[in-house]
């Protein structure tokens, strides 16, 4: 199965944006997202990714730390995501694919303002790591999102 890069999403779809320009890593991540029921868009260029983030509200955003030769400190996609207002940022489950940080390293994830880190060495296990991470995220932020919906309805 391939990412549905030109497709539109239907309301209620689980959606993912994969910003991974390393083809081998992309080929490991995308099928696992599709297996979990996500509709996937690929973001291969900075401008394209930023436009997609303005157009769609993705449930999951996967960013490779070295996207287009960047580092975690100067990654343009990661920087754009963490600069978003808090309520807007919390609509996305943000995953950093890393060569240097360990999978599920909560301290490094916090420092990088992401929800989950997955080390490149663990990409074969991306699906169960993501499933667990999203479950914990939903548990943690459920009341926040419900309160936000109630306030927006007023």
Describe it for me?
By secondary structure, this protein is an alpha/beta fold. It is 44% helix and 17% strand. The protein contains six helices and five strands, in the order βαβαβααβαβα. The chain has helices at residues 23-35, 46-55, 76-82, 86-89, 106-111, 126-153, and strands at 14-19, 38-42, 60-64, 93-98, 116-119. A five-stranded parallel β-sheet has the order 2-1-3-4-5, sandwiched between helices.
Measured on Cα atoms, how large is the radius of gyration?
15 Å
Which segments are poorly predicted (pLDDT under 50) over 5 or more consecutive residues? 1-6
Summed up, the helix count is: 6
Report the count of strand segments.
5
Structural class assignment: alpha/beta
Q: How would a textbook summarize the main sheet?
A: 5 strands, parallel
**What is the end-to-end distance?**
42 Å
Q: Identify the overall geometry.
A: globular
Strand percentage: 15-25%
Order of helices and strands: EHEHEHHEHEH
| Percent in helix | 40-55%
Nearest-integer average pLDDT: 87
Strand order of the largest sheet: 2-1-3-4-5
Short key terms for the protein model shown above:
disordered N terminus
